[in-house]
Amino acid sequence: MRRFLALLVIMSIVLSISPSSATLQAAAGDISVVSSSHENKFPNEILFRVEASSTSEIKKITLYYKIGGASVMSYAYPTITPGMTVSTQYALNTQRTYIPPSTEVSYQWQVEDAAGNNIKTDFTSFNYDDVRFKWEKQTREGVTVYWYKGSQVSANELLDAASAAIRRLSA
Description:
By secondary structure, the chain is an alpha+beta fold. The chain is built from two helices and nine strands.
């Protein structure tokens, strides 16, 4: 149990709070992104959804996503039926593409129409959390401990140990 909690401490050092829905940029040409969302279906998949409209036929939608602190951007082409209004989704299989719990995932959509217009949403970031458990969290001196079993006392002991280790390594 202590090893598991220590692993949670290490993983949580790099985590940050992030928004859960996309901030959409202003319309590009005549394209507008009506909605953009994601659904965490841990441990099986992340479901990304988008709806866009245009005065010209929408021909292509691309999902760009980044897992963790990777410098490489991945992309996917969800299936669409071209039209003036298009809704689509893409399921990222997290059984095949392993993503550790609490990893930050960032994504954006690009929509292109027949008139040559295109638009990209701003990036949206969220933590791919294990939603099967009700997580508790405690933060001190830049270290966050997450747990779902155990006590606040155990969490404080781990925070004390992490803080002491950071002070030793920083000296």
